[in-house]
């Protein structure tokens, strides 16, 4: 059973079993399992013998869905070091803060990210390696991309002697393996192999420690959510459009497919027409996505009318609540195209990596989150942690082999979240008499914007740090494109309203990922307070929902 081995060992086992099968497809480049394993071993050699990376060292990976992301991830795991995955366009100040907090040894950062703040990155240039999106492109595409990016970077940074030749920076393509031996780390169920970042079950930003066991647990049960015998998983193709810094994307669209000997089809940036092009090239069979992805695909005529839809086996939706109409519309589109594929909703959270309950062909109920995966136990409890009857609403808790080791350097937060082996999700719902799990609403304040977790407290703290602002509160509002977005209420000391809005947005765009940038700003003389003197977010949310006719 793969849960008693490292992630690298699980991949190596698959590669040795199916060396010539397709492991990765990327922009026309096809990489076999044999070639992928060789690249991983060569990168591990560079990390261990040239860079001095050792077991338990922390390495930041901040890259899009490109082959090098996967290669680095498994090379780091082979050594027994820890991959710290963050958004590739995280601003410098956040990257530096994460690196300092986690005592990061090196960071592998996306070239376009560094280009935006190159002078600031010089502060940590000795820890940084620059990765390029073009390195695995076919020759013709590489030439086009090289020319395009050369123009963009020169325009951004002025005259350069050559593209990306920033003094003091090192590039991964310049590192060459000497094929020296690398000791392979033994399996340790308590070793933190991956750090992911989330809003935690309370809505406050947390760093989550995950083991090899947790990832392999989800991967081992791929036959369950695919509703196929294990021996039939080989040869399937999973579309990887969810980002690697997201547990759903990293585990479900990269690790789980690869260790089960089916392909990961990488798309660095989601575009409906790009998905169609790749579908025509690969005839992929599985998709994991968030609601906005499926909504955009349904609006793309070349997707809904594509003859290759008949090759789709199943699609999964997570990361945010799926509207009932989306499931219905997608399934109707599949039926019309003559495809047996259906869209299934599942549920999980970063503290347990990815999907822990899901609808499948074998067990499906519309509107539900499906049933618990094998070897997972779900309960719904009241405020006294007592299990409630079927159909009664309470907090969803569950026990699973995918649950995190804990929050990074936060024993108190970990103990509050994991009680008697059960992960307390902070989400409200119920379980019906047949074991189907239903979600009602979130207790935590984290907001999913286009499937990406954003933290209102982080936005509030940034805006309140401005000298012109005395108070700020953020809530979620509906958005046609993003499903959810942020609205902030601001109490300003003095301002010209138009100029102040522009300054707030400029500050947010500079220091936050784009999903955290509020789409609406409302100025008030004061904010409502609770009896304890805290800002009453619930009241603001209720007022806004009533104003929009949502209550």
Describe the structure.
This protein is an alpha/beta fold. Helix 1 (7-17) packs antiparallel against helix 2 (33-50), helix 2 (33-50) packs across helix 3 (67-79) and helix 8 (212-220) packs across helix 10. The model is unreliable at 160-164 (pLDDT under 50).
Topology:
Layout (H helix, E strand, L loop, with lengths): L6 H11 L4 E5 L2 E4 H18 L7 E5 L4 H13 L2 E4 L6 H10 L2 E7 H6 L1 H4 L6 E4 L7 H19 L12 E2 L22 E5 L7 E5 L1 H9 L1 H5 L10 E4 L6 H13 L3 E4 L5 H11 L3 E4 L1 H8 L2 H4 L9 E4 L6 H13 L6 E6 L6 E4 L12 E2 L4 E5 L12 E6 L6 E2 L3 H7 E2 L2 E10 L5 E6 L4 E3 L2 E3 L1 H9 L4 E11 L3 E10 L4 H15 L8 E4 L13 H11 L4
Helix pairs in contact: 1-2, 1-3, 2-3, 8-10, 12-14
Features:
8-stranded mixed β-sheet; globular; Rossmann fold; GMP Synthetase, Chain A, domain 3; 9-stranded mixed β-sheet; alpha/beta; 551 residues
Please outline what is shown here:
With 551 residues, the chain is of the alpha/beta class. It contains 18 helices and 27 strands. Helix 1 packs antiparallel against helix 2 (33-50) and helix 1 packs across helix 3 (67-79).
| Uncertain residue ranges | 160-164
Q: What share of the residues lie within helices?
A: 25-40%
Which CATH class of the domain at 7-21 and 31-187? Alpha Beta
Question: Biggest β-sheet, characterized?
Answer: 9 strands, mixed
Assign the CATH topology of the domain at 7-21 and 31-187: Rossmann fold
Instruction: Order the strands across the largest sheet as they lie in space.
Output: 2-1-11-10-12-13-14-15-16
Q: Write down the overall geometry.
A: globular
- Corresponding CATH architecture of the domain at 7-21 and 31-187: 3-Layer(aba) Sandwich
Termini gap:
49 Å
Radius of gyration using CA atoms only? 23 Å
Mean pLDDT: 90
Number of strands: 27
Secondary-structure content class:
alpha/beta
Q: How large is the share of residues in beta strands?
A: 15-25%
Number of helices: 18
């Amino acid at each position: 059973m793969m849960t008693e081995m490292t992630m690298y060992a699980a991949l190596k086992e698959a590669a040795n079993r199916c060396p010539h099968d397709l492991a990765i497809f990327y922009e026309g480049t096809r990489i076999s399992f044999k070639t992928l394993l060789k690249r991983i071993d060569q990168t591990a050699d560079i990390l261990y013998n040239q860079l001095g990376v050792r077991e338990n060292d922390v390495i930041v990976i901040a890259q899009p869905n490109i082959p090098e992301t996967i290669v680095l991830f498994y090379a780091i795991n082979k050594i027994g070091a820890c991959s710290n995955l963050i958004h590739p366009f995280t601003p410098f100040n956040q990257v530096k803060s994460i690196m300092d907090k986690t005592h990061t040894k090196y960071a592998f950062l996306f070239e376009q990210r560094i280009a935006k703040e190159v002078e600031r990155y010089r502060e940590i240039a000795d820890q940084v390696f620059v990765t390029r999106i073009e390195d695995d492109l076919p020759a013709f595409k590489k030439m086009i991309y090289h020319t395009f990016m050369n123009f963009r970077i020169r325009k951004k940074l002025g005259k350069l002697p050559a593209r990306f030749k920033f003094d003091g920076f090192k590039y991964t393509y310049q590192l060459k393996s000497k094929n020296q031996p690398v000791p392979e780390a033994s399996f340790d169920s308590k070793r933190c192999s991956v750090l992911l970042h989330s809003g935690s079950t309370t809505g406050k930003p947390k760093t989550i420690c995950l083991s090899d066991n947790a990832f392999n647990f989800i991967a081992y049960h791929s036959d369950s959510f695919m509703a196929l015998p294990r021996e039939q998983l080989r040869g399937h193709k999973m579309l990887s459009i969810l980002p690697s810094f997201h547990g759903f994307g990293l585990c479900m669209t990269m690790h789980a497919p690869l260790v089960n000997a089916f392909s990961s089809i990488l798309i660095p940036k989601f575009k409906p027409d790009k998905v169609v092009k790749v579908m025509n090239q690969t005839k992929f069979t599985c998709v994991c996505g968030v609601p906005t992805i499926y909504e955009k695909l349904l609006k793309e005529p070349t997707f809904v009318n594509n003859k290759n839809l008949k090759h789709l086996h199943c699609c999964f939706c997570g990361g945010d609540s799926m509207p009932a109409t989306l499931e219905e519309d997608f399934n109707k589109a599949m039926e019309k195209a003559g495809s047996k594929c259906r869209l299934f909703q599942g549920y999980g959270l970063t503290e347990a990596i990815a999907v822990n309950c899901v609808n499948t062909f074998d067990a499906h109920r519309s509107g539900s989150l499906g049933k618990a995966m094998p070897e997972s136990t779900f309960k719904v409890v009241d405020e006294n942690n007592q299990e409630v009857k079927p159909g009664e609403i309470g907090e969803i808790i569950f026990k699973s082999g995918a649950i995190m080791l804990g929050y990074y350097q936060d024993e108190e937060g970990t103990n509050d979240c994991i009680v008697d082996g059960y992960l307390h999700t902070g989400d409200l719902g119920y379980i019906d008499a047949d074991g189907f799990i239903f979600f009602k609403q979130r207790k935590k304040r984290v907001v999913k914007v286009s499937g990406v977790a954003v933290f209102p407290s982080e936005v509030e703290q940034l805006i309140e740090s401005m000298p012109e602002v005395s108070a700020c509160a953020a809530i979620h509002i509906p958005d046609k494109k993003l499903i959810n977005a942020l609205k902030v209420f601001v109490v300003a000391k003095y301002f010209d309203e138009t100029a102040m809005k522009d300054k707030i947005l400029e500050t947010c765009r500079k220091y936050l990922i784009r999903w955290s940038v509020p789409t609406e700003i409302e100025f008030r003389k004061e904010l409502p307070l609770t009896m304890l003197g805290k800002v009453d977010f619930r009241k603001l949310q209720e007022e806004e929902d009533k104003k929009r006719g949502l209550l």
